[in-house]
Amino acid sequence: MLTVEIIRMAWRSLGANKLRSALTISGITVGIFSVISVMTTISALQSSIETGLSFLGADIFQFAKYPNSINAFGDERFKNRRNIDYETYLRFIRLIGDQVELVAPKVFDQNVQAVFENRKTNPNLDICGTNQGFIVSNNFTIASGRNLSANDVELARSVCVIGKAVIDRLFPEGGAVGKTIRLDGRSYEVVGTFGPKGEAFGANEDKTVIIPITKFFENYGSKNRTVNIAVQARNQIVYEKTMGYAIGAFRKARELKPEDPNDFEVYSNDSLAGAFRNIAGMVRIGAFVISTIALIAAGIGIMNIMLVSVTERTKEIGVRKSLGARQRDIRLQFLLEALFLSLLGAISGIVLGVAAGNGFAAFVQAQLVFPWGWSIAGVLVCSAIGIIFGLYPAHKAASLDPIEALRYE
């Protein structure tokens, strides 16, 4: 028999039992969908992080009380650490001197409402006490007006720089600079506005308002507050050396003895990306294990359906053999049927998985990707499953005695 004719017969055989074929394909689809959707989501998020959606600016590292971990704030090991207070920050900048490009303290209060005349924002703004280094350390830009100044911090002036979400709500006609707004009932002069920053992973950075850190502590108090301190090296060449020097200065500012472990965290863009990669790796392993189990179960389903098909078509096989069909022709046909079932399931799973993964990526405003590597791997694995689990039914069909097969009712 011609190979093309065998392929046509295998395809027509699947079409003869559409419901049964569809149910068999769905098993493969679920297995591939589970892994492709997860891998697409992880790849999209990782791509966004590594191409600009970073927490810190270039050549910058940060000292903090808590590590950059989802569960860190509920962990007693970190809750019992001393807060990083403003006095520690002042000691640190005296010790570090001119060895770094900038040092920017940051302390936040959330769910703040801004008011201007008869307009109000939602009570969901983030107010940050900081200095002039904030915009560099957090990749913000000044759209109009000016940044905070060293004099603003030294004199604890009631000034602020506001994000685009605040501007759109309070000053839809523009002209925010020079106006006086109220934050939690306290008046601040708007000296500058931020350029649009957008959302990243559910957090809207356009809702940020910054004020001098000295005014922050004056208005909100310093009790139970910890300061994050961003440090920028002069360039990438001295980055590692600067970080080592800064850690030593920060330990001294914290009055730690040489034998004491660090009671603070240091992280940078690389460490943040590394932490994400570790989490992504564990998620990938979990998705791979789950999908492997699902694919094995689907492969068993293919074998079962093919064995049923062999039994139902015993007389057809006998007729074909009596007309000259060879064992290898029969074996190839049934292998192709199993392979077609697997490949159709793989393609369906890849399409649905990519759509679901990129749908989530679009929701959190991450980059859209197509996981070519995992998709190709999925097709190859499904092909192997179709061949492996279709081999026994195909061998059984090819081994049927034509005389006995013709007598089968």
Folded structure, characterized:
- It is a single chain.
- By secondary structure, this protein is α+β, with helices and mostly antiparallel strands.
- It folds into 2 domains: 3-51 and 274-407, no CATH class; 60-268, no CATH class.
- Helices cover 55% and strands 16% of the residues.
- It contains 14 helices and 14 strands.
- The chain has helices at residues 3-16, 18-50, 76-79, 86-96, 134-137, 150-154, 164-170, 213-220, 239-253, 269-312, 314-322, 327-363, 372-398, 402-407; strands at 60-64, 102-112, 114-116, 119-120, 125-130, 142-145, 159-162, 180-183, 186-194, 199-200, 203-204, 208-212, 228-232, 265-268.
- Strands 1, 2, 3, 4, 5, 6, 7, 8, 9, 12, 13 and 14 form a 12-stranded mixed sheet that branches.
- The chain is elongated.
- The model has no long low-confidence stretch (mean pLDDT 83).
Percent helix range: 40-55%
Number of helices: 14
**Proportion of strand residues:** 15-25%
Radius of gyration, rounded?
32 Å
Provide the domain count.
Answer: 2
SSE string, helices as H and strands as E = HHEHHEEEEHEHEHEEEEEHEHEHHHHH
Summarize the biggest pleated sheet: 12 strands, mixed
Number of strands: 14
Kindly, what is the distance between the CA atoms of the first and last residues, rounded to a whole number of angstroms?
26 Å
> What is the average per-residue confidence, as pLDDT, rounded to a whole number?
83
Catalogue the unreliable spans.
Answer: none
Structural class from helices and strands? alpha+beta
- What spatial form do the alpha-carbon principal axes imply? elongated
